[in-house]
Amino acid sequence: MTRGLWRAGLVAHLAGALLAAAPRHEVSLMGATSVLPYLRAASAAFMSAHPGYRVTLAGGGSVAGLVEVSRGRVDLAVADIPPRSEWTQGVQLCHTALGRLPILFIAHQGLVTHLSATQLREILVGRIRNWSAVGGPHERIVVVSRSLASGALQVVERQLLGGQRVTSHAIVMLSNGAVFTTVRETPGAIGYVESGQPPSGVAILQVDQHRFARHDPGAWPYYAVPTLYWRCPGDRRVRDVAGYLASQPWRREFGLF
Amino acid sequence: MRDQQREKVIQSVTWGLGGIFVLLGFGLMAMVLVGAWPTLAEPHALARLLSPTWDPMRDQWGLLPFLLGTAVVTCLALAIVVPLALATGISISRMLPWSLRPQAVRLLAALTAIPSVVFGWWGLETVVPAVRILGGQAGFSLLAAAIVLALMLWPTLGFLFAEALMKVPRSYVEASAALGASDDQTLVRILIPSAWPQLMNAFLVAVARGLGETVAVQMVIGGQVAMPAGLLSPGATLTTQLLTDATLFPPGTRGHAALDAMALALLAAMGLLVRLSARWQGQP
């Protein structure tokens, strides 16, 4: 009898503990991988400041995030490209920007450190194919780009290339990190990465008179605007999380300014 | 009576599961066909799909670079791996002492279980730089993809070849030896012809695996959507391009239909392989 009471008490205690630990508000977020490091840190800070909330994160890219939030499969999307109707299927999305994320042009070391915007454009669209044409060594240019689902690619094509396409002869990588590694390892390579922190082991290109400096990122003209999207009007828990993520001043540490 | 009932239940469950399997298979094919239909039903669909330009943002959906990439990578990988795997199969089935053969087969079977991403990672670390040094280009290339694929297929094909050769009755070999045939003559004139249907089946399994491999190839091929200029040029295959663009086109869009057409091409190739396999086994 006593043993039975003990068992019942233990079960009740465990159930109580589980119920107490279970989050009351779950918020799922999916999208651009470039800001996931910040979102990881910020969502952890949010959860510790707001017990009862659980924020789950997934990558997949900007387009995947927009598609999934429009279909109601996730609560929040993060994307650095504006939504298109074919992705959202007419669903109205509310949004708040996380900040600006610089897009840096990087080259394999020992080639060039400075290009004009015109030279950079001609290289990326494939009209200039040798570094000697822009003052570098006689070496074939290898353009390293991102897949069509990447927000960074779309920003580069819109802001720098004026709507032209990156050459179809480019090597296509599926992530920011893969572009960086490939440019670092491949002689003659040039590419672009979303980062507020200049990566080491590659040449960060100065474009026209613009040189990226961490202490003055606002002077750098090429950037994406990672933005949080949710189905309008959205319930309070989603708006709370979005508001928190978009307002943390320490997001500059992650390159968002 | 109870045994009969149990038998009936087992039979029903077996039929039910078999039915689900068939339904899933046909369902998958139907889903891909229906998905690809908007592309296939367009005027000049075949010409558009076989054009050399893939640029979804400009409504150009040519699959030729990926069809070519798939064919080149698979054929080149098979050209590399078939002699190696045949040598492995012959070594295990003919040259190793009897006592070591089971261990060798077990080792090969264990090697077949290595995940493809490990081969891709290894390819990225070693094959791409090696091709870069030898070829003087980026290293990401059809050649690098074929080498990685070949090394990935080696244990599977070697295992299947060894199994096929070991199934040839020992009496055939002994009879050949009794007639004065050398080892080489026995191999070429008795063993290989006797095991030919199984060897061909193993080969078709390797072709199917080669056609369908995605991750390892994606990691080293470069993903270039233009027509490859040569073996040292980057490229893409049907599967790698499906992976690359899968998140870009939600169901119902024009792009999704093009991706379904890619999947349909792969299914058709696999269907052809199954048909060939049946023919080699002498089935109608």
What does this structure look like?
The complex is a heterodimer of chains A (257) and B (284). With 257 residues, chain A is α/β, with parallel strands linked by helices. Helices cover 33% and strands 23% of the residues of chain A. Chain A contains eight helices and 13 strands. Chain A has helices at residues 2-21, 36-49, 62-70, 85-88, 117-125, 151-159, 176-185, 236-245, and strands at residues 25-31, 53-60, 76-79, 93-97, 101-107, 114-115, 142-146, 171-173, 189-194, 203-204, 206-207, 223-224, 227-231. In chain A, the strands form three sheets. In chain A, strands 5, 7, 8, 9, 10 and 12 form a six-stranded mixed beta sheet that branches. In chain B, helix 3 (64-95) runs parallel beside helix 6 (142-166), helix 5 (116-135) packs parallel to helix 9 and helix 6 packs antiparallel against helix 9 (215-221). In chain B, 75% of the residues lie in helices and 1% in strands. Chain B contains eleven helices and two strands; from the N terminus they run ααββααααααααα. Chain B has a two-stranded antiparallel sheet with strand order 1-2. Chain B has two domains: 2-41; 54-280, MetI-like fold (Orthogonal Bundle). Chain B has helices at 2-40, 45-49, 64-95, 101-111, 116-135, 142-166, 170-178, 183-212, 215-221, 238-245, 254-280, and strands at 54-55, 60-61. The longest helix of chain B is centred in the first third of the chain and has 39 residues, at 2-40. Chains A and B meet through helix 3 and strand 8 of A and strand 1 of B.
